Amino acid sequence: MSLDVHVATLNQKHAEIEDVIAREELRPQPDAIKLMDLKKQKLRLKEEMVRLDLRH
Fold it and tell me: What is the pLDDT of residues 5-25, one digit of tens each?
């Protein structure tokens, strides 16, 4: 897998997680643990994208 394809995949996953977070936050009683987990996943993806961008 090329670096560009990998970064694009990471961007797509990041956007998907953002959507899930937004939907969860709109619920009457959002699941705080689920939100925390999703936000950690999103941060890990962002860190990986930055790391790869610095190598590029």
Answer: 998 999 999 999 999 999 999
Q: Where are the domains of the chain?
A: 3-55
Query: 35, 21 in Cβ contact below 8 A?
Result: yes
Model pTM score: 0.85
Phi (first) and psi of residue 30, to 5 degrees = -60, 145
pLDDT of residue 4: 86
**Contact 31/38 with Cβ under 8 angstroms?**
no
Q: Which amino acid is at 33?
A: I
Short-list 28, 27, 23, CA closest to 38: 23
Are 42 and 13 spatial neighbours (Cβ–Cβ below 8 Å)? no
